[in-house]
Amino acid sequence: MSDGRSARRERNRDAVLDALVALTTEGAHDPSIDDIADRAGVSYRSVYRYFKDRTEMMDAATDRALAWMQPLLLNASGPVAPSDPLDHRIDSIVDARVEVYFQIADKVRVAKVQAFSNRKIDEHFRNARRLSRGQIHDRFHAELKLFTPPECELRISAIDQVLSYTAIDYIVHERNHSREELERYLRGAIRAALTVPEISD
């Protein structure tokens, strides 16, 4: 009986967190407890049996959302070997980043607004940016080593910016370009950033 109650409590607690994440993603930046309880299928009173206050509930929901997104970001470079042709390495990272974008776009759009006031979300985005730069450096090391160290850092920054959520969201969400157009642009921009300028006589 005790195990059954514990399992039910855990399911209901997760349902509350999922409801809060879903409502926030849909645009309700400060959903009421009534709305959260209704979406989760639990009573208003039971919500505060799972969390001592709203702050604890918000922190737990943030952890839950970030735990879901983190594996996607870790895998956002795509499978590749250093010896693979450049075109394949570019295609792999573009395909992976675009797929991740379409899976988490709505959640990230809301989270970026909340990052201004939520230290945990802001720290997550900072870690994601560091991870992105590392992926780019490792993926294109053979091409990047042909540049001077300062130029190499600039090229990594250019590729990182092109592949960023903000840049992709602008192209897709604000400018209404298709996924095919997005991928074509990203491949061309990365290839241009890795091209060593010809030195004229």
CATH top-level class of the largest domain: Mainly Alpha
Main β-sheet: number of strands, strand sense, barrel status? Answer: none
**SSE ordering:** HHHHHHHHHH
Work out the helicity level.
over 70%
Taking all Cα atoms into account, the compactness measure Rg is 21 Å
Molecular shape: elongated
Sheet/helix structural class: mainly alpha
Do you know the CATH architecture of the largest domain? Orthogonal Bundle
**% residues in beta strands:** under 5%
Average pLDDT reading: 86
* Count of distinct structural domains: 2
Number of strands: 0
Distance between the termini: 84 Å
Count of helical stretches? 10
Fold-level CATH name of the largest domain? Tetracycline Repressor, domain 2
Sequence stretches where pLDDT stays below 50 over 5 or more residues: none
Characteristics of this structure?
Tetracycline Repressor, domain 2, elongated, Arc Repressor Mutant, subunit A, about 0% strand, 2 domains, mainly alpha, about 200 residues
Please characterize this protein's 3D structure.
The structure is a single chain. The protein has 201 residues and is an all-alpha fold. It folds into 2 domains: 1-51, Orthogonal Bundle (Arc Repressor Mutant, subunit A), CATH 1.10.10; 62-193, Tetracycline Repressor, domain 2, CATH 1.10.357. It has 10 helices and no strands. The chain has helices at 2-25, 33-40, 44-50, 54-74, 86-114, 119-139, 141-144, 149-162, 165-174, 179-193. Helix 4 runs parallel beside helix 6 and helix 6 (119-139) packs across helix 8 (149-162). It is elongated. The model has no long low-confidence stretch (mean pLDDT 86).
